[in-house]
Amino acid sequence: xxxELRAEEPxxxxxxRSRPGRASGFDAPRGGRKLARYVLxxxxxxxxxxxxxxxVIAALKPGDQVLQDPLVPGPFTxxxxxxxxxSGRLGRYIFNSLVVAVIVTxxxxxxxxxxxxxxxxxxxxxxxxxxxxxxxxxxxxxxATLVVNLQTVDSLGWLNSYQGLAAPFLATAFGVFxxxxxxxxxxxxxxxxxxxxxxxxxxxxxxxAVPLVRPTIGALALFAFLGTWNQYLWPNLVVNEADMxxxxxxxxxxxxxxxxxxNLVMAGTxxxxxxxxxxxxxxxxxxxxxxxxxAVKG
Amino acid sequence: MTPARLxxxxxxxxxxxxxxxxxxxxxxxxxxxxxxxxxxSVLDSGNNNTDATTTGETTDVPASTADTEVTQPxxxxxxxxxxxxxxxxxxxxxxxxxxxxxxxxxxxxDGADGVVxxxxxxxxxxxxxxxxxxxxxxxxxxxxxxxVQLQNQTSYDNVADNYISVSDSSRPVLVQLExxxxxxxxxxxxxxxxxxxxxxxxxxxxxxxPRTLTAYQYEGIQWSMPFNVSNPILYYxxxxxxxxxxxxxxxxxxxxEVRAASQxxxxxxxxxxxxxxxxxxxxxxxxxxxxWFGRVDEPYADNGNGRIAPATEVLFNSELGVxxxxxxxxxxxxxxxxxxxxxxxxxxxxxxxxxxxxxGAMTIGTSAALGTVIATLGGGLIPGLTExxxxxxxxxxxxxxxQVQVGGASLWITDGKSDQExxxxxxxxxxxxxxxxxxxxxxxxxxxxxxxxxxxxxxLATTYADDPRFAVAFDQLLSGxxxxxxxxPVLGPQREVRGETSRAMASIFNGEDPQTALDAAKQSSxxxxxxxxxxx
Lengths: 298, 536
Prior knowledge:
- Helices cover 74% and strands 0% of the residues of chain A.
- Chain A is built from 14 helices and no strands.
- In chain A, α5 (127-136) packs across α8.
- Chain A is globular.
- Chain A starts with a helix and ends in a 6-residue tail after the last helix.
- Chain B has 536 residues and is of the alpha/beta class.
- Helix content of chain B is 46%, strand content 12%.
- In chain B, the strands form three sheets. In chain B, strands 1, 2, 3, 4, 7 and 13 form a six-stranded mixed β-sheet that branches. In chain B, strands 10-9-11-8-12 form a five-stranded mixed β-sheet. A two-stranded antiparallel sheet of chain B has the order 5-6.
- The longest helix of chain B has 33 residues, at 5-37.
- The interface between A and B is large, with 73 and 68 residues.
């Protein structure tokens, strides 16, 4: 579900960018093209929103009404959401997801900022080669390293634990790349001035560089958080006992034990999506700004 | 690093990277999105995502334990048929190979100080899980030596995949495995054979249905204990039968009768199709095919279905296989049957019977779905259908008499755990297998009791008397003999072979020539078997 929400982002960033263009009179689309563009956007929006619509509708219907006119909203009841919360043990699973997502987010920020600073500001032999190697890991999908990661976590005795859930995701090439790009944009004079004032690398990073790139760090944090929250495959492999499930793998438990209650499963899905949707709504602007910050030099 | 050098050095890569920046960022964002969406979305939750990554490992287990070959008995004789049917239950004739396998100290609980906690991995969902939890709670409160912790792995395949993918120490002492896993886990060298526990505990199996025990014997050793025994039965909509002028108390048993009934249903317009088929490996594309061969005592694999000696080839492309699949193909071509495809979780075929606009009249499904189907319909989920609207009958197939093999799953004990854990696991197993538990279990789920004395006890006695739909699976199980051919085939890569037949059935349903499709599936299955035999 959140992947779909994320899929909306590019279209929004396009519309955000086209707004100043329209105001200044440049490249304003003519009536026909504008109409076609909106029709296309509406169609895409419909495709994206339709599953969400049916999910929410089903989640709010009583059990014996779910399959009667599944596309028509009502009658509404909020009991199902409560049932899903208790019988699906979603409170426990959401707590687990929060713990893991916070661990991963904090660690990714720390590792990304430190590594990116080194790549952007320090001069050491093999820097560019190393950076390309870093970037290349973006092309290795999670599935390729899955078995090795699982064996490692298993041999450390970390199955069914927060550290097992978080360990493989504490550093990402994406984060390093993102942070390096913004560090490179900091004027070199800043660093020079800091040096003249006797500020070392740690001081410069802490007091000058990090405060300046805060919006990008926010975007990275959001990405890390959402990515971890939505993980499905890894938690399913690492967790074998009910108590340690994250919200996504816990939803599967709920789905498997509620074949006769589709509305309950939908209610669980809605509950699981609420924190992500809320985070997206709150940080949406920052997310777009952070991602496009390095793309177009203003 | 001097201050003078710093700006110059840091400027040049920045200039270069600026031009590439937008391109690289878009690429990176794309890769990130792809990486995130693969296999991690809630929408994938119905799929078995572990498939792709663990299939390779499934075949690894026997390979990695190939050095335990010593434990395999070498006598090629067939100990099961040598026994009288009533006593064949206890594999006492095989003391020699059993002695070389891990022993089962069933009396270790007596010396235990404090409560022994054990973990049981199972794949039971819906009503089945509810019933298992009830039984386990009863066990935990009935005594103070053992506490069993249930851990739901959500499906048979996930139980096995998760079990294989973790190291020995992370495995539970007790695990529920589907019938098709018999040979690969017997070969693994990682389990305590149930036969050892039977021997040391003297557990009385004289009341057991002999076939339920022999089904889990391989090379003369009782490897695991049957717990949830199921077999395929016919589910049908009684009101559609009535509307079509058919007797709702007399469902079709032979293939000709199925065709005639479907013709009457379609002709009368009572439903859009007669029979709903599927090509899933755990149902119409694999398990049922094995069952259809067993029904007429035709071998599915050589060497007595792999029970006299390791199977070297499958035989499902025989005349029977071609005739059977041609029959099903014709049914679909003539509009009398339809397929719901892969049927994950076995749900789609049932849902087709509940279809509001174009329902099917009959489908074949596991008897284990009975409790869940009743609960679902009883809850009023499907408009216009109640729990009394459907009936069950024996699994239709070739031949005139219903006969099935033992399906479902059995309980395996992991080797290498402490004596106390092993003993505790066995104690829990014997609780699940006692007549009272089996009576309760079968009445709640639709599983077949593994022992006949469970029939005399409530709730099962009442259920079988009041609701004949429950007794169908038990009756047709008893009609089969306990010789090798009537027992299910035992293949090392049985799950993979079912994958091959599943693909073949899907293409046959789509119109491919049955002989060609089955020949191709046989060829790839034989290659899988040869590869497995080479490594074990």
